[in-house]
Amino acid sequence: MLIQFNTDNRITGDEDLAAQAEEIVTSRLNRFASRLSRVEIHLADVNGPRGGSDDIVCTLEARPEGGKPVTVKGNAGQTETAVRDASDKMQALLETHFGKLRTH
């Protein structure tokens, strides 16, 4: 499973942030690693300098082998919390997705 990390121009996407986000995503989605070709992490600050309680958006896009990409979003005031929120949602989505494939 390849993990790709991206940020908008309002978030400084340094190596520490990338490593932290990749660690969170890997810990949540590791059990699906053999079934996913790539996971993309996109972090964006939707309010810019105005701030706000849920202004950081983390979009996760997972690409199951041989299937269509699936996407979730997590919002929070901090990047780490937004990544955790999106990772939890993606974990639940993939459990449902692969569970349905198994029953068919």
Measured distance between first and last alpha carbons = 24 Å
Largest sheet: 4 strands, mixed
Radius of gyration over alpha carbons? Answer: 14 Å
Can you tell me the overall shape?
Answer: elongated
- The CATH architecture would be 2-Layer Sandwich
What is the domain total for the residues? 1
Secondary structure class reads alpha+beta
**CATH topology category name:** Double Stranded RNA Binding Domain
Quick one: CATH class?
Alpha Beta
- List SSEs in N-to-C order: EHEEEH
Protein name: Ribosomal subunit interface protein
Organism: Blastomonas fulva
InterPro entries: RHF-like, RHF/RaiA
Q: Could you describe the 3D structure shown?
A:
This is Ribosomal subunit interface protein. InterPro entries: RHF-like, RHF/RaiA. This protein is an alpha+beta fold. The chain has a single domain (2-103), classed as Double Stranded RNA Binding Domain (2-Layer Sandwich), CATH 3.30.160.100. Helices cover 38% and strands 31% of the residues. The chain has two helices and four strands; from the N terminus they run βαβββα. It has a four-stranded mixed beta sheet with strand order 1-2-3-4. Helix 1 packs parallel to helix 2. The longest helix has 25 residues, at 79-103. The two termini are 24 Å apart. The mean pLDDT is 90.
